[in-house]
Amino acid sequence: MQDTTTSSPGRMAILLLIGVVIGFAIALITPPEGLNQQSMRVLGILGGTIFYLITGVLPEMVTVILMGLLFVMLAAIPMGVAFGGFGTTVAWLFLVAMALAFALGNSGLLRRISLWLASVMPANYFGQMLATFLSGLFVIGPTVPSLAGKMALFTPPIQGVTRSMGFADNSKASIGLVFAAFIAPYILASVAFMTGGTPTLAIFGALPEPVRQGIPWVMWTVYALPMTVVIGVGMFLVLLKMYSPGRIVVNKDGIRADLAKLGPLSSKERTVAILVILLFILFITSPLTKIDVAHSAVAIMLAMLILGVMSSKDLVAAVNWPIWIFVAFVIQIGPVMARVNIDKWLGTALTPVFQPLAGNLYLFFLAFMVVALLLRMLSPSISAAGIILLVAISPVAVKIGINPFLLLLAYATVGNHWIMPHLNATGYLVQYTLLEGKYYTHAEGRKLCYIFLAISVLAVMISIPYWQMVGLIK
Q1: pLDDT for 104-114, tens place per residue?
Q2: What is the distance of C-alpha 402 from the center of its chain?
Q3: Which residue pairs from 77-83 have beta carbons closer than 8 angstroms and sit at least 24 positions apart in sequence?
Q4: In Å, how far from its chain's centre is CA 36?
Q5: Rounded-to-integer distance, Cα 404 and Cα 194, Å
Q6: How far apart are the first and last CA of the chain?
Q7: Mean per-residue pLDDT for 243-261?
Q8: CB 242, CB 176: distance < 8 Å
Q9: pLDDT band at residue 185 using 50, 70 and 90 as cut-offs
Q10: How far apart are CA 420 and CA 377, in angstroms?
Q11: What pLDDT is stored for residue 381 in this prediction?
């Protein structure tokens, strides 16, 4: 989440006023059939909120708090609904994941795992690319939902690895590895894991309760498996083709030296490792044990505090509170819209548009991804754009037998594009900043994004028969 507040007081005042005008203009429209005046007020508040998010006139956290307050004061939405996100499974799962990411980084375990993987993989570029993909996807991916946090934790170690191997910062070999350090934990993990990214987790929290209940943590990964494999293998091969320096033998002496400096596992590292393994066992077995993943996550966080892995001050520092508050509010957009029947009205209004595509699932998903990409071209907020889009189209999807969760998986690809400077995926911008622009240019980044989008469409198309087989498409 980026703070894009406008610096000029005059421009800020004008934009704030425009947002108010937009809100009132929508709220005062005569309600169409299926809506009432309360519905129009909610739509007006959402219209103003979207305008503020697009223009960045206020910090995103401030914008959504204002949205929640206006829902209560002007649209008569109960506070338990408008502010209810703070008591949801998604909000607490996200909070604990941030605490866990802090523990992994602070204990040194994350750096140790990254260096160990680099040391045991084959002494060639293929092996080091594979080590980056595996550590990014399976270590950083599910444990660090914060998109900026992923890059802040993973970029410096990978940068150190490229230098330890003797690659110049702006060399093809280094560029390929840092792109892999972006793709695997950020883009690929957002598809593969429930806790793989803040936006997807927030959008998932806004889906109807029956849909969420049918997608436990482990089943998310199972249902996303074909997409994960196609995108992962596709991007891995693309990066090898574009950036491999050819047949080389990687000198691992620097990597082994860095690993040796860490010494044996510390007691803190052992404790964190045990707790992380236990947490994922609880996540994977949740369909059998019926233990909510958020309950397991909170229990592990308490264990970290009790065992001294992290202190209360560490917890305060670990959690990105503006992002957490933002997520807690945006996941309630869906319930608020449902309370005043906006979701049903949108479903009825959009059915004639998408119904003709019902006979061809491939065209339906392609049309959805195009609409999603166009919407993201307008909105800098991945979460808000995704929630509004899925709330609008989910009723249509349900009517034609498509589980709305699949729309989320498709959105997780195109929604995370990095084509336009002001709309680039947060992790891309964070990594580019951390690398001080010394590795790749934005033109190179855009070229890779176009390839990624093409592979993503292919991944969704290939996944459709699988989703039919597992019953997500009837």
Answers
A1: 888 988 888 87
A2: 22
A3: 77/42, 77/336, 77/339, 77/340, 81/332, 81/335, 81/336, 81/339, 82/332, 82/336, 83/328, 83/329, 83/332
A4: 34
A5: 15
A6: 36
A7: 81
A8: yes
A9: very high
A10: 8
A11: 79
